[in-house]
Amino acid sequence: MCGIAAFATTKKNTSCLGTIISLLIELQHRGQEASGIATVAKDGTAHTYVSKGTIFDLLGMSSLLETMTVDAFGVIGHTRYSTSGGYGDSEAQPIVVGNDSSFRIAVAFNGTIANYKQIAKELGIKNCRSDVTVLSEAIRKLALESGKDVVEALKTLSSIVIGGYSAVVLTSEPRLVIARDPRGFRPLSYAYNGEEFVAASETSALEVLGYDDWVEVPAGGIISYDGKSVEVVTAPGECPTPCAFEYVYIARLDSVFNGVSVYGVRLGLGYELSKRDSAEVDVVVPVPDSGRAAALGYSRGRGVPLEEGLVVNRYLGRGFIMPPGMREIIAKLKYGFVRSAVSEKRVALVDDSIVRGTTMAAIASRLKHIGAREVHVRISSPPFRYPCFMGVDVASRKELLAWRTMNLGDVACMLNADSVAFNNVETLAKVIGLPSACLACFTGRYPFKGLTVDDLENMFSR
Ligand code: SF4
């Protein structure tokens, strides 16, 4: 669940750097561990800058400012949340491959390539320390085999990858190519106005910068811009199965994914949750920020007032996308509590999901400590029970609270709550409203023919 962005232009005196930095700031919620950009000048020379931390840490690099003066054809950028390789900046993207200056490529991607070791073996790639290194080397190798054609390379790649990816590729030709895997797990959109080509993981990033006429890259879509025109091709298809968890948690509320509003889905899930609930509660308290829209839907559905009982520390980022060891610390520091909003009240505490349960248990305990009479945890998604191999870092089943037990009484006990309720898988699929979506982390049924969770776990190991 990293964020990726790209920008290329033929306009004179346009700051490629300013645009990419702005896009990455709008995508920061998708990853905070490392940031990076790669530029290619009109003469084909490439520069890469990566830094541990957020895009603001990257901005602190003095050498980055020097590139403001480079006459760039294009730039790609990345905000990292690790799903493979180490935590920190050792696998920061973009990655540049190719010593030969006549054909060098920079790659940034959002996703996970579950069979990257197998691909490395089949293509004879020696550097297989992580899925992004294999993906980058594979794109270059396959492109060289087809006359330096990155579009052909991505078409071939789409038929051999098990996993999910959205990718941006900048070549020294120069050329900018963006692509989404054939099942379309991860989002990617772009806009082209005749002079500027711009792409980002989420539509909200494009809209904030004024690119309102964005188009979502279709599942299997490969879009190429060479400074003169845009070429659109689609790799031979699979049934699209976009990630349901993007709607539940990952994507920004103001984004659209596969033509469906993220806000609409979250509101609808809260409303659905309220329809089957008879617990007596006095107030609805959202877990900010990602639980807010669901709490609003739940509050409206139950006719119970919404209260801001939790105050989030915005400087700590998202707990879910923190490396192990940091999550417990973040769970403690992240929230302040509004005593007057919850004291002596029976609280419906609404969040989007429970993955490990670390944060929710800490919140429920604290609410009771400051005087809440009862805490009823309401979760707008189904129990998250299986790992993801398509771009979300839950590598082991043992980490998942709902894998350890599906008994709601036990879950409530583990969360220090009086009761707990979830939406079911059918409701989630119904509210999203697409013909198909990936629900594998809730069902254990992965959209790769014949592959079970055990097969995928064996295939992909850190
Ligand atoms: S397994 Fe879950 S998180 Fe992963 S792509 Fe499918 S729905 Fe999304």
UniProtKB/TrEMBL annotation:
Q: One GO molecular-function annotation for this sequence?
A: 4 iron, 4 sulfur cluster binding
Its needed co-factors are: [4Fe-4S] cluster; Mg(2+)
Secretion signal span: none
Binding of [4Fe-4S] cluster occurs at C243, C388, C438, C441
Q: How is the cofactor bound?
A: Binds 1 [4Fe-4S] cluster per subunit. Binds 1 Mg(2+) ion per subunit.
* Annotated Glutamine amidotransferase type-2 domain residues: 2-228
Q: Name one GO biological process term.
A: purine nucleobase biosynthetic process
Catalytic activity entry: 5-phospho-beta-D-ribosylamine + L-glutamate + diphosphate = 5-phospho-alpha-D-ribose 1-diphosphate + L-glutamine + H2O
Is RNA-binding included in the keywords of this UniProt record?
A: no
Instruction: Give the record's keywords alphabetically.
Output: 4Fe-4S, Glutamine amidotransferase, Glycosyltransferase, Iron, Iron-sulfur, Magnesium, Metal-binding, Purine biosynthesis, Transferase
Task: Supply the Pfam families for this chain.
Answer: GATase_7
EC no. given is: 2.4.2.14
Where does the chain bind Mg(2+)?
A: S290, D351, D352
Q: Where is the active site?
A: C2
Report the pathway entry: Purine metabolism; IMP biosynthesis via de novo pathway; N(1)-(5-phospho-D-ribosyl)glycinamide from 5-phospho-alpha-D-ribose 1-diphosphate: step 1/2
Q: Which family does it belong to?
A: In the C-terminal section; belongs to the purine/pyrimidine phosphoribosyltransferase family.
Q: What does it do?
A: Catalyzes the formation of phosphoribosylamine from phosphoribosylpyrophosphate (PRPP) and glutamine.
Q: PANTHER family recorded for this chain? A: AMIDOPHOSPHORIBOSYLTRANSFERASE
Q: What is this protein called?
A: Amidophosphoribosyltransferase
State the species of origin: Ignisphaera aggregans
